[in-house]
Predict the 3D structure of the following.
Amino acid sequence: MSLDAVLAKIDEALPDATARLLDLLRIPSISTDPAFKADCDRAADWLVDDLISLGFDASKRPTPGHPMVVAHYNPDGATGPHLLFYGHYDVQPVDPLNLWDRDPFDPQIEDTPAGRVIRGRGASDDKGQLMTFLEACRAWKAKHGTLPCRLTIFLEGEEESGSPSLIPFMEENADELRADVALICDTGLFESKTPAIVTMLRGLLGEELTIHGPSKDLHSGMYGGVARNPIRVLSRIIAGLHDENGRITVPGFYDGVPELSDEMRAQWQGLAFDHARFLGDVGLSVPAGEVDRTPLEMIWSRPTCEVNGIWGGYTGDGFKTVLPAEAHAKISFRLVGRQDPFAIRAAFRAYVQANLPADCTVEFKGHGNSPAGQMSVSHPAFEASRAALTDEWGVAAAYVGCGGSIPIAGYFKTYLDMDAMLIGFGKDDDQIHSPNEKYDLESFHKGIRSWARILDRLTKQAK
Ligand SMILES: [Zn+2]
């Protein structure tokens, strides 16, 4: 049976697939609000039933929070890869409700100037996206009578509320969940048009520091000039964190930062990223990072050090000639490659200590830390999936980075020793987490077709 037959089945069954998605979207599975606990449970049940109808051995698994949905398809004599698919069935709260043009849980297909969209909470994040995979499985089953390979489906109901049960569940069920590669559908197309596989995710380290000088606040008429001012000390330390070329000066900071491969650099150049528009949208015009890096490199593959807050002395109305006893700042680092958050924390603290003048002391408070995620694109599933996406969208698919953090991808690596492929079909204007969330019908339709092509490539590759 050919892939074409599966794709034709997907086209023909799109109205049914859309109706099923609308059904799932009607369940208000807001994970953060205890008032919707029963609805989260209902969404999990809905998915278990749907997975059973596809031939999976599916069950709802309790956690201290909302249940996980775990499903297996492992027929006797299955060949090919063992794939795990991850998505989440919980959604963000809907307030402010008055900014919605319709009831967020009465979803509808709407015609817009940009095309048909599915409107409702969760349409894009993540119910629409996760259903692209299940619909691809359904069409495959309809044509072949079986699913393409050994599959594990792992759906979470707490992603929008910090995933408190996720790591313990992964640890307790590691043997059951481990597969060859994880597929995660919770990301988007690059600039709403280029299919993309996210292979780099920046990590994060947060530090807060307080510099102490005099034993109490002083009067600047009495002590100004002779007493050490902690705000000046802090400012000088912060100013020294970058050199004139935009590089971070903390010793050892760039240890573990990989250089971009020529292949990846060429792919990113091919994306023709419009950085003028990107910066123009926020009232800026000139990239401010390392002088010898492109804007995409700065966002995706280079580490940062940013000051997120700074305070001290008198900042109220009027004026007070105070010479403060202390000064504070919050500083965060975005990390890439194999940068070690603990080593950087230690190096940063040593840098600050080394730059403290006489009579000053410093106190540190560490905030979160997570290493960067770097997928090994040498795993053959990556190239096969990229080719499949290129076939479907008619645009060369790209490996991209993600400036923010998507912790789930790192968890698969850390707790299950699996690489994860983040492939999603959301668009920049989907308004996820905001009023009037939507998912383009095109994203849904071509998303389903994309997974069918990926499954086809991955199973053929294994033969
Ligand atoms: Zn999501």
Remarks:
- The chain is about 35% helix and 20% strand.
